[in-house]
Amino acid sequence: MAINIWKYSSPQTFYPLAGKLAPWFLGLAAVLALVGLYIGLLLAPSDFQQGNAYRIIFIHVPAAWMSMFVYLVMAFWCAVGFAMNTRLSFMMALALAPTGALFTFIALWTGSLWGKPTWGTWWVWDARLTSELILLFLYIGFMALHAAIEDVRRADRAAALLALVGAINVPIIYFSVQWWNTLHQGASVSMTRSPSMASIMLIGMLVMSLAAWMYAIGASLLRVRIIIAEREQYADGVAAGAS
Amino acid sequence: MSWNSAAEFFAMGGYAFYVWGSYAVAAVCIAGEAWWLVRRARTLQARPGLNGQQSIRQP
């Protein structure tokens, strides 16, 4: 029997489903984070060039990956919202934005803490760092624009348009280290060649990335529930006021 | 295990401020988001719909 996915595109039916799924994702995130921290902080050896400063990688790289990935997912839901005119898609985009902004902030902050001991500076205006900072401003702009427009459906559409236009920044961030001469190093992990790091370090980084991924899903499911309930409450209030 | 003592672990080869600073900022951010989510959910429960109805209509 085929499962009717359209059934879950309605906020009322998605609300309990999100409530059931969120604890699983958050629990999985906690377990993966513990395993990842164990590998990264206790098992992995120190780096022959950077000593133990490299251990920032277990926070920095997962946060940076998620900052870009969450933005793409957010832009995807905005596009679905425009194409299908589904309310839930816009709510999903709105639910993802704070978590994406959080990961972007963590990536920038830990990058700064990593830059000081290895490059000798907290910040440089190179392409990778600058485009990642623009990503943070895009997240903040998306949330601020949404909050500034009174009519929720108009706010959904205006903010979604901003998110879609801003999506061009994601490939710019990703390829910045190839397109321009940056202080930031190139990708340590890519699909086309073997990774330039010890496998235990790589495993730790991948486990932490999975943890960050699960956390992002769990946190945005919890937030989308709050958004659904808030809008329901608001609609009830409007209906009550009109009658 | 790549450490000989707990002191060595916490010292991080002289990079304690940078390494633990990174882990701390991530922990604080995640705790902050959790706190914010809980607060938003509580506000919602404390204020059932303006017409006195419960917050969400279950199907």
Report on the structure:
- The complex is a heterodimer of chains A (243) and B (59).
- Chain A is an all-alpha fold.
- Helices cover 77% and strands 0% of the residues of chain A.
- Chain A has one domain.
- The radius of gyration of chain A is 20 Å and the shape is globular.
- In chain A, 42% of the residues are buried.
- The model of chain A has no long low-confidence stretch (mean pLDDT 91).
- Chain B has a domain at 14-46.
- In chain B, 12% of the residues are buried.
- Mean pLDDT of chain B is 83; it is low at 50-55.
- Chain B is built from two helices and no strands.
- Chain B is mainly alpha-helical and 59 residues long.
- Classes of the chains: A mainly alpha (243), B mainly alpha (59).
- At the A-B interface, helix 1, helix 2, helix 3 and helix 7 of A face helix 2 of B.
Give a quick summary of the entry.
The complex is a heterodimer of chains A (243) and B (59). Chain A is mainly alpha-helical and 243 residues long. Chain A is built from seven helices and no strands.
Q: What topology does this entry show?
A:
The complex is a heterodimer of chains A (243) and B (59).
Chain A: H1 11-43, H2 57-84, H3 87-119, H4 127-148, H5 152-166, H6 169-179, H7 199-242
Chain B: H1 6-11, H2 16-46
Q: Which two chains have the most extensive interface, and how many residues on each?
A: A-B, 44 and 36 residues
Q: In terms of structural class, how would the helical and strand content of chain B be classed?
A: mainly alpha
The unreliable regions of chain A are none
Low-pLDDT stretches of chain B: 50-55
Tally of helical segments of chain B: 2
